[in-house]
Amino acid sequence: MSKNKMQKNIILIIIIQLILLLDTYAKPEKLNDKVVLSGYIKDASNGELLIGANIYFKELKTGTISNLYGFYSFSVDPGVYEVDFAYMGYKTISKQLKITQDMDLDIELEEETESIQEVVVLSKKPDANVRDPQMSVQKLQSKDVKAVPALMGEVDVIKVLQLMPGVQATSEGSSGFSVRGGNPDQNLVLLDEAIVYNAGHMLGFFSVFNNDAIKDVKLYKGDIPASSGGRLSSLVDVRMNDGNNKKIEGKGGIGLISSRLTLEGPIIKNKTSFIVSGRRTYADLFLPIVTDEEAQDSRLHFYDLNIKLKHVINNHNRLYFSTYMGRDVFKDVNSQIDYGNQTFTLRWNHVYNPKLFSNLTFVGSKYDYELGTSEETSEFTWKSRLRDFSLKLDYNYYLNPNNTISFGFQSISHRINPGTAQGKGEESMFSKVEVPDSRGLEHGVYIANSQKIGARLNVRYGLRFSGLQNVGEVTVYEFDENYEAINELHYKSGDIFNSYWGWEPRISMSYILNPTTSIKSSYSKTRQYIHLASNSTSTTPLDVWFMSSPNVKPQICDQFSAGLFRNFADHTIESSIELFYKDMKNTIDFKDHPDLLLNDKMEGEIRTGKSWAYGAEFLIKFNLEKFNGWVGYTWSKSWRKIPEINEGRKYLSPYSHDHDISLVLNHKINNRYQVGLNWVYFTGSPYTAPNGRMFVGGDIVPIYSARNEERMPDYHRMDVSFTIKNKKKEGRRWEGEWNFSVYNLYGRKNAWSIFFEQDDKDPYKATAQKTYLFQFVPSVTYNFKF
């Protein structure tokens, strides 16, 4: 399908839906005095608030869902109603309620302990795939991830998201990912609303998210809510568990390379709760017993710690505090590198009245890394850091059964230190090199509405206004047409010397054709003010973040999506076809051989232009009696056109994969035995290869072909797992299970990287060499709960 034809199809669907919208909206609605049913939906066993639980009024054939903090509100005429409270994987509660005035009602749902819902993307009512106007969204819970085979037994929510249509890993085993052809830095990753700038451990082979500490994950691939902004491609919203407020309990796991332990419980029963979750690899703990003296002095590990506290002041006020600390350490006799993230989140939920809910959030986020060597004359240390503080206020106003209005604002203070390097010791040949800090203030204000119009049409629309202010003290360089610095401008501390502002409209809608089928469409504009400079397609600890400035404009994306959604077999099988088109302005790329590290004139290495991506995504999810999982396929293209690169001709983005297939299958044999399988295939990544070498200024340098003209070999692998649960004993709290898994079952040699090695005999000749990782990796993990 051509790009132009796809655009026409999407626009046609949007026009049809707008006509239906105008026709339906023109019909007047009778106004009545209303009363409000509101409250919280909780897990009966631990008091955990349930996100996206369904509240359904049978007589009205409509209802609502709980928000991100488990709160719900719904206006009705006074009367008697049969109301269902439901959440996938939990027993539905039906209550007959006589509602004559505003009523507070908290509901506790019991989990179906023997439910087979272990892998499928859950936590929604069966027909939500058809009715929800929001498209391009995937949701996971902690239990959704457990049965998916994982590298070295470390279950990982990011790796599961990479199995969704439109999402590709940037390289073998990496936690970095591309969404619909976008760069990895175009994904906004949040942990309890705090930005995580590097979501990977061990150079990206594991993510920073400990599955035992996670409650809920949402991936927005295009239709990002108006309440969020700052990235072009996607939003990954990760929410931590609140902690059991009824009883002390724990869980954990012991694997071949790491172990984890989580404890949670009440400090004051039903009022104040905590959760503490830690994880650490321990290969380095065995190094002191090896015979190699150099190995004894080495370090190789990562750890992370999640802590969260929740306090219920009363039914109208709740306080939350959460923090994350994680670090990676690599050290041998000659060098070392360590890096990590730290975040904290302080939140106050307040219910003004049954119709108005607010959440005030103060957030801090820090990412830093340190690189050092211990070679005598070349001994040095290199440090870099990034720090954010953010204030955010969000409101939900439940106007009436057909309209839920959201509005609020956010301000973020950015401070980036690109790097400071200096020699260590008297014999070091290195002098101090420091790239000055950059500071900025990023703002956003928004309003949005979720509206039901008649029985068939659901619409969400909103408007966000965002901006960035560059703040001194800083030196800004002016560049000529050859990108050479020709002037310096100095700004004092606190001076706002440059600003960017812009509107970001968002709209999505669904029109229900029949109880099992709907068509949906969406449009969104997003702006990105902070960017990543990297010499690799995969994210690495040494990547450099930088802000838009007088020399670098914000990136802007207009995305159009349209799709057909159809359920089968009483909603146990869901299917969807989505088309998307992304038009991006001020796209950032770098010249050949860019100097990105410790360069205070790095903006001279940047080249900007336009880019676009388009494709089709197919998804079939099934939730049958003994089998569940999904099959996904994506066809897509991602292009760039930058005047100073590739002689001004268009070229493929490094994240353009023509074909991407994923299969996830879970079979529950019985209540003790379970088998999991996934298979992945995608077209190899584009890259730029040298097609010759020449002698320049006394050195032999490569001559490159057209940008991204070559491709890596196609990638595919199969993973399997087998889980055995221990027999349950009456009255015994301890529960255990063994998980056996194999990553890359048939030992496929997938290229992790390609480098070119100079021939010893002919210096003008270079040979491509491939690096391979993870050819058949078995693992075993013992998981427990008490």
UniProtKB/TrEMBL annotation:
Pfam families: CarbopepD_reg_2 (PF13715), Plug (PF07715)
Domain of life: Bacteria
Membrane topology summary: Multi-pass membrane protein
Stored SUPFAM superfamilies: Carboxypeptidase regulatory domain-like (SSF49464), Porins (SSF56935)
InterPro entries from the UniProt entry: Beta-barrel_TonB_sf, CarboxyPept-like_regulatory, Plug_dom, Plug_dom_sf, TonB-dep_rcpt-like
Subcellular location: Cell outer membrane
Protein name (record): TonB-dependent receptor
Organism, as annotated: Plebeiibacterium sediminum
